[in-house]
Amino acid sequence: MGAKDVEVIKTTTWSAGPGCHGGCGVLAHIQNGKLIKIEGDPDHPWNQGRLCPRNLALTQYVYHPDRLKYPVKRIGARGEGKWERISWDEAYDLVEKGLRDIKEEYGPESMAFIKGTGRDVAGWLQMMAYAYGSPNVAFGLSGLACYTPRLMAMWVTQGDYCVADASQWLPKRYDDPNYRVPECIVVWGQNPQSTCPDGFFAHWIIDLMKRGSELIVIDPRCTMMSSRAKIWLQIRPGTDGALALGFLNIIINEGLYDETFVKNWTNAPFLVRVDNDWTSLLRERDLVKGGEQYNFVVWDSTTNQPGIWDSVQLAYNTQGVEPAFDGSYEMPLADGSVAQCKTVWTLLKERVSEYSPEKTAEITWIPAEKIIEAARFYARSKPAAIHWGLPIDTIQSTTPTAQAISFLWSLTGNLEVPGGNVIARGAFNVTPYPMHSEPTIVSLPPEVSAKKAGAREYRPIKEFRQNALPDAILEQVFTGDPYPIKGIWIQTSNPVANTGMDPKKWHEALKKVDFVVAVDLFLTPSAMLADVVLPSSTYLEKDSVRAWWSPLQAIKKIISYEECKTDIEINLEVARRFKPDLTWNNSEEILDEIVSPSGMTYKQLKEKGWVMPPEGHPTQPYHRYEKGLLRKDGKQGFSTTSGKIEFCSSMLEKWELNPLPYYEEPPFSPISTPDLYEKYPLIMMTGRRSSLFFHSEHRQIPWLRELDPDAIVEIHPEAARDLGIINGEEVWVENQFGRCRRKAKVTPMIHPKMVMVPAGWWFPEKEGTEPSLFGVWDVNVNQLIPNKCVGKSGHGAPIKNMLCKVYKIGDA
């Protein structure tokens, strides 16, 4: 059969298959209905022909002999590995009965729905859970510590989300006359080319380096990018907040900020009551009005008219004299008292003054002169961009840390400018992936939504995004407080091997609840504990859509595999059984509704492949805050409560959290737990990415596993020598919570006082039944990390900054 019998079809990646956050254009080579090869699409604006090893090995993934081919039900004990093949009709009936029994006896909130990271399943799973009546849809990582904390910090600061601008919004990309190559790119806590960052193709940074961008890389490990950076800051894990505050100290005190932007577009001139623990923005309604008692008026500096803001902006007093931008004032209040006030700018200056270069160096282990050099280089570069990663989320103090970092691009005038950080919205405002708490295709009544696990304890969990707190879900399995969790649905997630901190507790929970459903492509350690397992599809086997962030793209069904169904089909069928009045009969009708803001049907989008919004559309940069394209009321400004960039956050104040950024030492560290540090003298990082795997996926794919065969721990030669450990030797990694078995990789790429333990390991080639569960208990590093050790906002967990010791197998 010749090449003429091969059809080459263009489509777009997203999970499952490569596993990642997707967005790349591919050419799928199909012969007699079967995938024979896949390669990057050189005409696609996202990846321009480049493709990761996981995609290149997709033939082995799609046709792997261990792939699930049909639904199965458990016929033995959970974990015993005894399954019976069933039809889809029987599978749906079993699922309906299991869910209905829990709903009728305990209420729908007693069923929890656990999803994985960045998957297109999020919208469909939420649709099903809400149709069933449960608010408990959760990304399974402790403290929702994957992008959600950064999203919230940006949202409370600027009302939207930001990403580094690598011209991904422009059809002509780097050649577009509106684009400027960044002089400086800060790569903060990520090794981009080994992963697929959220809505960002890693090699764009390399493209920009070739065009003149210079890097500041902040990473404890020496990576490809840090080895080529102008400045590498080898930071102590978990101290990113101190470094951000140290940067702000230098930029503010040396006058390296954009004063025009700060005065006109931020709430720096607003007044804060300092007699109330510096936590309360002064409101117009608090003031005495009329005569000389009303010292200052609310003023909108962009229109030069009395303003609409709820908070008091210090602009002009009643005599028309501009007051000091940086100062303290007495303001008469309506209750007859006088408030001692300072401007937000004054408070921010005072806060960052605590973090001199010397103090920041002491905390972070980075030399003070390097901190000064990096802060000055970033602030003086026009434009400059920041690209950040997961380590910002995986600390307890994630909220104030991400808040402080997000101040940097606003302070320096690098927001919404070509080559800076630009506000990212789904193309054409299409949102198949729920990013915030706006209504989606199925909504819940407020009183039901308020029952989300974790919402009682943490206001951000209640009011930001739809996610319940997985830590609270796990605790409620055992406590029943405020209500029991009696069932768990797992889709694109693997809590026992990957997302679950204290995984043995997750294992116990899955054994304890009344009903467990798993939707996956392979039997994982978590799926082995299910009552019903439903086989899902790769991205080549489904119709879907991707709009995160640009362009708007169609994912096309090209092939079929055995009896596998798509996530949309599975979730829609179950949803209709609990909400028969749903208006959609099939996935294409759902996709039509989702893409409707673009003015196209899904079929029309599929014919085009991908579409970018036109210049001037609200989902296209730049300078939209000046054009009235960000706010729902069409006024100039940002989508915050005040309409300004908020250096003192009104939302954090509302949630009774500190509205200013601050630094908090990690809970387990040389500083906070010195006695523990003596016993466990190495700082343990987790989660170092491999381009060959995505989290706990792909360990069974031969081409990929051959190149990365072992569960390792990276250790510096000095530390290895002191411990008598040689390269390739099997060792224990241990702390007060547990231990795991690893193979030592002795490398100078790691700091002598740190080790790196990649997460997500299990062995598909080992026995899958209990007690082995594919050898997960030998290697799972999450056994060394506690559950529910979250931050004050409910976000964040110490996933990448624990303490440990390493010793040879057989040593005491």
What would you say this structure looks like, in words?
With 812 residues, the protein is α/β, with parallel strands linked by helices. The chain folds into 3 domains: 72-139 and 431-546 and 552-611, Rossmann fold (3-Layer(aba) Sandwich); 158-430 and 631-662, Dimethylsulfoxide Reductase, domain 2; 674-788, Barwin-like endoglucanases. The protein contains 26 helices and 31 strands. The strands form 8 sheets. Strands 5-4-22-21-20-6-7 form a 7-stranded mixed beta sheet, covered by helices on one side. A 6-stranded mixed β-barrel has the order 26-30-27-29-28-31. Strand 6, helix 4 and strand 7 (137-139) form a beta-alpha-beta unit. The chain is globular.
Task: List the keywords.
812 residues; Dimethylsulfoxide Reductase, domain 2; 7-stranded mixed β-sheet; 27% helix; 17% strand
Write the layout of secondary structure elements.
Blueprint: E1 7-12, E2 25-31, E3 34-40, H1 53-56, H2 58-62, E4 72-74, E5 83-85, H3 88-106, E6 111-115, H4 121-132, E7 137-139, H5 148-158, E8 161-164, E9 184-188, H6 203-210, E10 214-218, E11 231-233, H7 240-253, H8 259-265, E12 271-273, E13 280-281, E14 299-300, E15 305-306, E16 328-332, E17 338-343, H9 344-352, H10 357-364, H11 368-380, E18 384-388, H12 398-411, E19 421-424, H13 446-449, H14 459-463, H15 470-479, E20 487-491, H16 495-499, H17 503-512, E21 515-520, E22 532-535, E23 544-546, E24 552-555, H18 567-578, H19 587-595, H20 602-608, E25 610-611, H21 624-627, H22 650-654, H23 674-679, E26 682-686, H24 702-707, E27 712-715, H25 717-723, E28 730-734, E29 739-746, E30 754-757, H26 776-779, E31 802-808
Parallel strand pairs: 6-7, 6-20, 9-10, 9-18, 10-11, 20-21, 21-22, 26-30, 27-29
Antiparallel strand pairs: 1-2, 2-3, 4-5, 4-22, 8-19, 12-13, 12-17, 14-15, 16-17, 23-24, 24-25, 26-31, 27-30, 28-29, 28-31
Helix pairs in contact: 4-18, 5-12, 7-10, 7-11, 7-12, 10-11
